[in-house]
Amino acid sequence: MPPGRSRTDTAAERGRLTARPLAADRPPDAPRGLHGLELGARRDGLVFVPQSYGPDRPMPLLVVLHGAGGEARQLMDLVAGRAEARGLLILSPDSRGRTWDAILGGFGPDVAFIDDALGHIFARYAVKPDRIAIGGFSDGASYALSLGITNGVLFSDILAFSPGFAAPDEAHGLPRIFISHGERDEVLPIERCSRRLVPRLRAGGYDVDYREFPDGHIVPDAMVDAALDRFLS
């Protein structure tokens, strides 16, 4: 147990997600296409379901997390166009505040909201339990690494585009990790971020596919495709 940690802390405060895919039947009329999550008020999220989805055809699920000051559409726009052809469910939640809770100081409200969102998805859609990934860009990538390593029993893969750091509360499982970073990134400089982070992850036993590209703080299409190819392989 980390220093200062109470045994009465909630699962969310420990960064632990409790939602899991269900064995029960799913409703045949669950919405397809792009639609609102409809769990929050001002800050909510988006869901994408391929038209080819059927309750008898479980699909992989990717949770994607936006950068600081962003919203669900930022990452949904990046991956939804690829999800139809790949047969991939997408969940893109909004952070509760201007960025994700652990970036601001500690796990809590965002973990609880993501847990509720996952429960919402699992109750309505058939998800492959061994093909669930979490990914993100910038602050969202740092949060995906932190939450993904903490919940490595749930997530098979982590897709981190230009992360700053990883700060898991604890480590469970060994999810595969994809990291990409621009060599000319002036927001999260590669020398201080991924080039320090990747060796530490590999030393911890993680299977890391690390790729650099000659550009700044962006997510090139080639990196998205490479990350999804690895996740779905």
Provide a short characterization of the protein structure:
This protein has 233 residues and is of the alpha/beta class. The protein has helices at 72-86, 101-104, 109-124, 139-150, 194-203, 221-232, and strands spanning 33-36, 45-49, 59-65, 89-93, 127-137, 157-161, 176-182, 208-213.
Please describe the topology of this protein.
Blueprint: E1 33-36, E2 45-49, E3 59-65, H1 72-86, E4 89-93, H2 101-104, H3 109-124, E5 127-137, H4 139-150, E6 157-161, E7 176-182, H5 194-203, E8 208-213, H6 221-232
Parallel strand pairs: 3-4, 3-5, 5-6, 6-7, 7-8
Antiparallel strand pairs: 1-2, 2-4
Explain what you see.
The protein is an alpha/beta fold and 233 residues long. It has a single domain (25-232), classed as Rossmann fold (3-Layer(aba) Sandwich), CATH 3.40.50. It has six helices and eight strands, in the order βββαβααβαββαβα. The protein has helices spanning 72-86, 101-104, 109-124, 139-150, 194-203, 221-232; strands spanning 33-36, 45-49, 59-65, 89-93, 127-137, 157-161, 176-182, 208-213. It has an eight-stranded mixed β-sheet, sandwiched between helices. The longest helix is centred in the middle third of the chain and has 16 residues, at 109-124. The model is unreliable at 1-8 (pLDDT under 50).
